[in-house]
Design brief:
The complex is a heterodimer of chains A (118) and B (168).
Chain A (H helix, E strand, L loop, with lengths): L2 H29 L6 E6 L2 E7 L4 E7 L2 E8 L2 E7 L5 H4 L9 E4 L4 E6 L4
Antiparallel strand pairs in A: 1-2, 1-7, 3-4, 4-5, 6-7
Chain B lengths: L3 H24 L16 H10 L2 H19 L2 H24 L4 H24 L8 H26 L6
The chains are: A alpha+beta (118), B mainly alpha (168).
Chain lengths: 118, 168
């Protein structure tokens, strides 16, 4: 094998290793997942509100000028509206399992699903 | 023969080029709307170019300067934190891999792309204080690889055709 094709072979090996490591860590995450009980709202890393997933409702989360509308319905939580620029939190699908999050970075907001223990 | 003056001048022009690439990147609307702030890493074309054409020190200097200027011009302190971690980690791994001489330029760039995104996730976890942001890894790592391939190929062409130009 020429030096060049050896390098290319190593490149592919590198990709495979990276993907395998990523997959393994993702699987470990998933396996330690249970059905969550609460949607915890964290602003700037601090827990501000905690809503049970079993109670349907709409909650307007206001942090100064920042507004996100959190909806709990049928055991799932999602953000139906927000006044951030990108609205990535709004396009996120509904979350319901422990560890799943909806993040609004500009508003420093994290909606995190947690179980009773947390 | 490349004098120091030529090297410094080249680096200065490359810094400006990296700035423009950063700006162009900001204009592209975020596609994978699942993850905020996902960027292709176009300025890394310049970093790779300098890493291979000149040396690590030049690539490092341009990277730091570019990061600060982009934050000053187009961003804020928060974006600076994300940029710095991504830039430092990606350049670090690229320099390491290049030293081993086991990977091609594109391979080095792939690692750079992955670690760039990794740095941003780690910064996000620290800032947001929730380790669950690690979930985004499943999206950011493959996209880091793809971006790395694209940037690496662009860098290779850049280096190859720059060899035809006598001035640099």
């Amino acid at each position: 094998m020429s030096a060049k094709s050896k390098k290319i072979r190593n490149d592919i090996l590198l990709c495979v290793v990276i993907l395998v490591v990523a997959l393994i860590s993702f699987l470990i995450f998933k396996i330690t997942m249970k059905d969550g009980s609460y949607a915890v709202v964290l602003i700037d890393g601090e827990e501000k509100y905690r809503y049970s997933l079993s109670e349907n409702g709409e909650h307007l989360i206001k942090n100064g000028e920042f507004e996100n509308l959190l909806v709990i319905k049928d055991g799932k939580a999602y953000v139906s509206n927000a006044n951030c620029r990108d609205k990535i939190c709004v396009s996120h699908r509904a979350v319901s399992s422990t560890g799943e999050n909806i993040v609004c970075l500009p508003h420093k907001l994290v909606v995190s699903i947690k179980t009773k223990g947390d | 023969m490349k004098t120091d003056t030529k090297k410094i001048t080249l680096s200065a022009v490359m810094t400006a080029f990296a700035l423009v690439l950063s700006y162009v990147e900001l204009l592209i609307p975020p596609i994978w709307s699942a993850v905020p702030g996902i960027k292709m890493g176009l300025p890394n074309i310049v970093i790779i170019f300098l890493l291979y054409k000149l040396s690590f020190m030049y690539a490092f200097s341009v990277s730091i300067i570019r990061t600060f200027m982009v934050a000053l011009l187009f961003g804020n302190v928060l974006s600076l934190a994300y940029s710095i971690s991504g830039a430092v980690l990606s350049l670090g791994i690229m320099w390491l891999l290049k030293k081993t001489n086991l990977f091609s330029t594109v391979g080095v760039s792939i690692a750079g792309g992955v670690f760039h995104n990794l740095g941003q996730i780690i910064t996000a976890i620290i800032i947001m204080q929730t380790k669950e942001i690690g979930y985004y890894m499943i999206v950011l790592i493959p996209s880091g690889i793809i971006a790395g391939i694209f940037v690496g190929l662009a860098g290779v062409f850049f280096i190859k055709y720059s060899n035809n130009i006598k001035m640099i």
